[in-house]
Design a protein that fits this description.
Elements lengths: L2 E5 L4 H6 L1 H9 L10 E6 L4 H6 L3 E6 L14 H13 L4 E4 L8 H9 L4 E5 L10 E3 L11 H11 L21 H4 L5 E4 L11 H13 L4 E3 L6 H8 L4 E2 L6 H10 L2 E5 L2 H8 L4 E4 L6 H4 L6 E4 L20 H4 L3 H13 L4 H13 L1
Parallel strand pairs: 1-2, 1-4, 2-3, 4-5, 5-6, 7-8, 7-10, 8-9, 10-11, 11-12
Helix pairs in contact: 2-6, 8-9, 8-14
């Protein structure tokens, strides 16, 4: 059994999108999976909880990456030595570095070389020299406009790893807890209004209006959010929706999302967590990043928001356009209609994505 490090060093959602690649690395290089790997997942603090939930991950190591984390820690000798010493002492001989189009694997590859890692794979626009043994050139060896989960799986495949037979390549997490005592019996729709990035947030009162309309249409609504979002979830839940703001850790949230008929959320980690437990998503998606790469993957999807707004592809954290038109123009009624289509099984966006993927595979 080999000891292979898989690196994905940014947010919760990014780590979840690395899940299919992790399973491929864990499966090993034998087609029948007879020689599986011990996978060490390297991530930052934001992704640590998600990494622990991924099938195929045997060990998680958290290290805040100075060229990825925002705000960035100082890059000091002791900070670098902490990672180098861990990798060297863990007897890791191979690494697969997963990055997005705007990130470079080379700084991490340098540290891993200093730690004695013998074989390193990654995707890099820049010449990698002796830092990368397997280098994929973005835009040449693979298209940039593809789902992030497929990009990561492509890097793992170039390193020689394949998914096990019967693995459909969708997002997945380990077993989730039974949350019936928390959410009660009967079907419900989850509304998750929070976002760590203001440019991706739909207004709280729009969320509250959507909750009222969903309840008026006969749906029970559960509102979720983190400990620092309880004023927001209370506003959105109003007098009658179930407010779980601050009452769920990541595993419990996965359980809540798994039981839902549909989830309403922005382009956030919970959107990808919903996809990982197989729940349809009505996603309020700001086009500051491209939906073809970052939309919830592998589940029925309703994509809401003006994808051609002026903020398109700016990667802005705060909306650069007065009035935030890409999302503020979406009405609560449109959200309810999207949820109805998801529950009714008539949403088609993910089918179009699947069709493009099949055409590319041919």
């Amino acid at each position: 059994m080999g000891r292979v490090l898989v690196a994905r060093q940014d947010s919760l959602g990014d780590v979840l999108l690395a899940g299919p690649a992790v399973r491929a690395v864990a499966n090993g290089r034998q087609p029948d999976g007879s020689r599986p790997n011990h996978v060490v997942m390297l991530c930052g603090r934001q992704g640590e909880g998600a990494a622990a939930m991924l099938p195929g991950v045997a060990e998680v190591y958290s290290w805040d990456c100075p060229w990825i984390v925002n705000p960035a820690p100082k890059m000091t000798g002791p900070h670098a030595d902490r990672l180098i010493d861990y990798v060297r002492n863990s007897r890791i001989t191979e690494a697969v570095i997963l990055t997005s189009f705007h990130q470079s694997p080379l700084p991490l590859a340098l540290l891993l070389r200093l730690a004695g890692v013998e074989r390193i794979s990654g995707a890099s626009t820049d010449y990698g020299g002796s830092l990368l043994d397997v280098r994929l050139k973005p835009g040449e060896d693979f298209p940039e406009d593809q789902p992030e989960a497929e990009r990561a799986l492509g890097i793992a495949r170039a390193a020689g790893f394949r998914l096990p037979a019967g693995d459909d390549g969708k997002l997945r997490v380990g077993p989730v807890p039974d949350v019936q005592e928390l959410v009660g019996a009967g079907p419900y729709v989850v509304v998750h209004p929070g976002s760590a990035v203001p440019a991706r947030a739909w207004p709280p009162l729009h969320h509250a209006a959507a909750v009222e309309l969903l309840e008026g249409a006969g749906h029970r609504v559960v509102v979720t959010g983190g400990p620092d979002e309880t004023p927001l979830t209370a506003t959105v839940a109003g007098p009658s929706a179930l407010d779980l703001g601050g009452r769920t850790d990541l595993a419990t949230l996965a359980g809540v999302l798994a039981r839902a008929d549909a989830v309403v959320t922005g382009n956030t980690g919970p959107a990808h967590l919903a996809a990982a437990v197989g729940t349809p998503v009505a996603c309020l998606f700001s086009p500051v990043v491209p939906a073809v790469r970052w939309a919830p993957y592998g589940v029925p999807l309703e994509l809401l928001g003006d994808q051609n707004a002026e903020c398109r592809l700016t990667r802005a954290r705060v909306c650069p356009v007065p009035g935030h038109p890409c999302l503020d123009s979406v009405s609560p009624e449109e959200v309810v209609q999207a949820v109805e289509r998801l529950i009714g099984g008539v949403s088609s966006f993910s089918t179009h994505v699947s069709t493009r993927r099949k055409a590319r595979d041919r």
